[in-house]
Amino acid sequence: MIDQFLWVIFPYLCVAVFIVGHIWRYRIDQFGWTAKSSEFIEKKQLMIGSILFHFSVIPVFFGHIVGLLIPARWLEAIGVTEHLYHIGAVYIGGFFGIVMLAGMIMLTFRRITKQAVRRLSSASDIIVNFLLLFITFMGVYATLVTNAVVTDFDYRTSISVWLRSLFVFSPDANLMTDVPLSFKIHVLAGFLIFALWPATRLVHAWSLPFNYVGRSYIVYRKHK
Fold this sequence. Notes:
By secondary structure, the protein is mostly helical. 68% of the residues lie in helices and 0% in strands. It has one domain (1-204): Fumarate Reductase Cytochrome B subunit, CATH 1.20.950.20. This is Respiratory nitrate reductase subunit gamma.
């Protein structure tokens, strides 16, 4: 029963909250659709932490896409062998994971130790910071430690297959039974952040300035 909830009901529930929550947030709180930058309070740690985080989050994201959504046989068909994939996942993925973890540690440390930043932070800001830090830590731990200890585990034959089964509405909770605990925690925390996303400042991730492309030039006139 608990497995059905964790690996079938909970993921769909989180995705539903993610979608409906964004629609609701956009309809009632467009002016709150912002990152609420605290750069004017403290800039140095924010700049370093943000660079580390944003530099690494994109390759980490695409690494998850390749590892979880693309079947292993498809990669093998284009010449990406198991050994080559393992090198990329562990060493390259591990490197970017550590960089992302360093960025999250710095950003979280800044938020809780800088009094002015902490006063400006809402409860959701604190929760998101610590949850992202936890997710990143568990991802790095699973990649570098669990993979080294549980050498016969291959998430591409378990987690990846399970995740893809969600997309075709045919989830199989049994695929997650023998998955190491660190990977399970990482997956569940990842879905949880999706559920919390619409209620936090993470919505600023979708605020791309597409309107700037077709916007008219702003003319400034100098008064004499």
